[in-house]
Amino acid sequence: MSSDPGEPILDIRDLRKTYRGGVTALGGIDLTVRRGEIFALLGPNGAGKTTLIGAVCGLVRPSAGTITAFGHDLSRDWRRARARIGLVPQELATDMFETVWRAVAYSQGLFGRAHDPARLEEILRSLSLWDKKDAQIRALSGGMKRRVLIAKALAHEPELLFLDEPTAGVDVELRKGMWEQIAALKERGVTIILTTHYIEEAEEMADRVGIIQRGRILMVDEKRAMMERLGTTEAVIDLAAPLAALPDALTPFPVELAGDGTRLVYRGGNGEGKGRAEVAQLAQALARAGIGFTSLDIHDSSLEDIFVGLLGKQAEAA
Amino acid sequence: MSFSWRSAYAIYQREMARAFRTAFQSILSPVLTTSLYFVVFGSVIGARMEPVGGVPYGAFIIPGLLMLTLLGETTSNASFGIYMPRFTGTIYELLSAPVGVAETLAGFVGAAATKGLILAAIILGTARLFVAYEIAHPLMAATYIMLVAASFALFGFILGIWADSFEKLGIIPMLILTPLTFLGGTFYSIRDLPAPWDAIALANPIAFLVSGLRYSFYGVGDVPIAVSLGLTLGFLAVCVTIIAVIFRTGWRLRE
């Protein structure tokens, strides 16, 4: 495995897909994913996330555009590229009558790898499936079946792993366990592209985030940068006595009166603490101006707020 | 990167494991059915029948019965082999793997052909319990069985990709292959049919297959062996071409 972190591992240019029947799932995607990162692709249902993954993994035939993985053009040198890519699909699609061991061994062979029991054992142990290696997959719980799919995708030691909704239908405890496993994969140098409905998941794990809607990428950025740039703080201050108008001492702050003058609402800052500092200054300004308040409630915007806001703006513009 | 033997073997191994997992359906069921044919047509009725072309009736029907089972089972096996992954969604793994048409066919069709050969051996063994027979050209018979099994495995593979329901999957073997095999000289010689039915019967391609296998068994056939062999090879080539086109265009495999 190359040790050059940050080099482009996947490069997608003007990727388009229109299905028979005329539905356009991808309307010109440009995206670069770098080695070693966890890239979260966020978007509402039908945004084109699964089609995009399908196009890279060979499940969907693109209508136009180019996909380059590890320097190989996927339309020509697909064998070399696919040998280094793994996919965990959204659906729990696996041979339910097969045992865990045989299912994972099959994946190893299918991707051209020599049968390596030690490697299979390592994968199954890391995913807490070793005790179930001889069990038929149909006898496993939903969370375990999903882990079997991950084990199958890891059997050929991919350098780029697609996780399409990896924690869909998984309970909170298992979800956190899966986050740890994904973090461990990253530690081993695997580049991960995941789609998720749980924005909290992207916020927890992703290095970079891409937001996709109606087959177009709206934004791609470092998660921290995105939160800093688009994040805000909202503070609601309940006043001891109503104000008729905003006093001059408060005009430097992005505040407005609400609730017939009984409440001050602050909206400003960024996702990196500037807002909280300003709210503290605002509280001091209130004290200096002799304006009493009974409560103060502060809320920093999450990635979910940013995501919802962006989609809302896009919908308004459309 | 060239042909991956490991990938092909992985598919082959999995398909064989699937057959053994469903051994009753895959092997025992056709053996039981064929045994009943031998009991009824071979031993009971066959004992009262005149030899056909110098071959006792019980032995005469062996190649036809073998072909009947071989065509049905090989086609069904291969069609299920590819249809089920499509139906359950597990085909994603095959499509996302560095596997081309050659490895896929070697795996799926190789397994279907192997199952066909195992089945043929079991049927011949079963037949021995009911009637005495000698195979005139054993090597030719084995080669021909393998060729027919591979051809119909390819045909089944196409069927499994074409079908979008279980009903469609069963239509061709049940409504076309089985009747054609029955009418293709399984239980009689086409030469014994009155005109014009003897000529009409030759419009049935299965008649050439039955005749070819019967020739390899007893040195007699309704049509020259070269014609049977040529037709089988031609069918094989057509199936391979169709599958190559399916993989290139992604028809019913990739969206």
Would you give an account of this structure?
- The complex is a heterodimer of chains A (318) and B (255).
- Chain A has helices at 49-57, 78-82, 100-110, 117-126, 142-154, 172-187, 199-205, 223-230, 274-288, 303-317; strands at residues 8-18, 24-34, 38-42, 64-69, 72-73, 85-88, 160-164, 191-196, 208-213, 216-222, 233-239, 255-258, 263-268, 293-300.
- Chain A has a 6-stranded mixed sheet with strand order 6-7-8-3-9-10, sandwiched between helices. In chain A, strands 2-1-4-5 form a 4-stranded antiparallel sheet.
- Chain A is of the alpha/beta class and 318 residues long.
- The two termini of chain B are 25 Å apart.
- The model of chain B has no long low-confidence stretch (mean pLDDT 89).
- Chain B has 255 residues and is an all-alpha fold.
SSE diagram, text form:
The complex is a heterodimer of chains A (318) and B (255).
Chain A (H helix, E strand, L loop, with lengths): L7 E11 L5 E11 L3 E5 L6 H9 L6 E6 L2 E2 L4 H5 L2 E4 L11 H11 L6 H10 L15 H13 L5 E5 L7 H16 L3 E6 L2 H7 L2 E6 L2 E7 H8 L2 E7 L15 E4 L4 E6 L5 H15 L4 E8 L2 H15 L1
Parallel strand pairs in A: 3-8, 3-9, 6-7, 7-8
Antiparallel strand pairs in A: 1-2, 1-4, 4-5, 9-10, 11-13, 11-14, 12-13
Chain B lengths: L4 H17 L1 H23 L11 H32 L2 H6 L4 H30 L7 H25 L3 H21 L10 H5 L3 H14 L6 H25 L6
Summed up:
The complex is a heterodimer of chains A (318) and B (255). Chain A is of the alpha/beta class and 318 residues long.
Based on secondary structure, the structural category of chain A is: alpha/beta
Low-confidence stretches of chain B: none
Count of DSSP-assigned helices of chain A: 10
The string of secondary-structure elements of chain A, in order, is EEEHEEHEHHHEHEHEEHEEEHEH
Q: What are the low-pLDDT stretches of chain A, counting only 5+ consecutive residues below 50?
A: none
**Physical arrangement of strands within the biggest beta sheet of chain A:** 6-7-8-3-9-10
- Overall pLDDT of chain A, averaged? 89
What is the number of helical segments of chain B per DSSP (H or I, 4+ residues)? 10
The protein's oligomeric status is: heterodimer
| N-C termini distance of chain A | 44 Å
Helical proportion of chain B? Answer: over 70%
Main beta-sheet strand count, sense and barrel state of chain B: none
Strand content of chain A: 25-35%
The rough form of chain A would be described as elongated
Q: What gap, in angstroms, lies between the N and C termini of chain B? A: 25 Å
Q: How many strand elements of chain B?
A: 0
